[in-house]
Specification:
4 helices, homodimer, 2 domains, Arc Repressor Mutant, subunit A, 3-stranded mixed sheet, two-stranded antiparallel ribbon, Dna Ligase, domain 1, DNA-binding, alpha+beta
Chain lengths: 146, 146
DNA sequence: ATCAGTGCAAACGATTTGCACCTCG
DNA sequence: CGAGGTGCAAATCGTTTGCACTGAT
């Protein structure tokens, strides 16, 4: 009966809302904003109402425990959260329609980034590509005046 | 007498505040936040007081004209502006002291990123490295519990 | 002189915090 | 039962906007 519980670190209470936030993040195919998580968690909770501040607090705790990572989209500064699974994903972001296309693999897999940075020890990285997606190219875009 | 004026695109008034914001960006060695720009511009203006909203508006115009680019630090979502010079810079960011160390070169210079992205045309990219800088390593850091 | 640009203050959205109540363990 | 978690509302921070005034052309 306590099977979902086992993935959870000790010393943190396994409440209904935390359970749901965690489940939402598990289901998510991409990083989510606190507000998205908030709505999805409420839906999971079958209509029960949560406080947005609670979501923020839960996410802060999860981050502190190393369960999730918090980053911003470079384009607009929107903060998003995602579960710390083993792998990580980068995105190509269309400047026209703002769609995000996950990259099939991390371009840094075979690059020795970890050196030549003057004593800096690299433990992670984040990359975003910008450009125009298949669909938006068709509409004759490619320049960047408005 | 109008020598600084020539770098400026037409159709936009070359006011004192715009002149100073532009000069601040020229002098800057790294991307700056609107508030930083605001303070630096006031200093340039020899103590004259500017409205922060004016800075925001000027930056918006500059961005629209393609003179500056606006991006967020991935780590914290802080929006920063920098002059669109030819080159671009990436940073290694220390997770401990939050110092930013510019990378000596763009690791993508010799990588064919522009393909294998399923019809997506890449026009730009942003990269941030995370880790621990020389100084913070000394203090025996390297794990990430608090 | 005209219209774009500015300053000021209010509005706004995202995030944080204080406090009283609730609940997991 | 008690510490920690939650809800609610107010506070805070970064950014935007409306409006009347000023200044560049």
């Amino acid at each position: 009966m306590n099977d979902e519980k086992r993935e959870f670190p000790q010393g943190i209470r396994w409440t209904k809302q935390r359970k749901n936030v965690y489940a939402v993040l598990q289901d998510a195919g991409e990083p989510l904003t606190p507000v998205q998580i908030y709505h999805l968690a409420e839906r999971l909770a079958d209509g029960e109402e949560y406080a947005l501040s609670t979501i923020y607090r839960i996410l802060a705790v999860f981050e502190e425990k190393g369960m999730v990572s918090k980053t911003a989209w470079i384009g607009d500064g929107t903060m998003v959260y995602e579960l710390n699974r083993g792998e990580h994903t980068h995105y190509a972001i269309c400047l026209e329609c703002h769609k995000r296309i996950p990259l099939p693999h991390c371009p840094f897999a075979h690059i020795a980034l970890e050196k030549d940075t003057d004593g800096f020890v690299v433990t992670g990285h984040k990359l975003e590509l910008y450009g125009y997606c298949k669909d938006c190219r068709k509409e004759g875009i490619g320049e960047n005046q408005e």
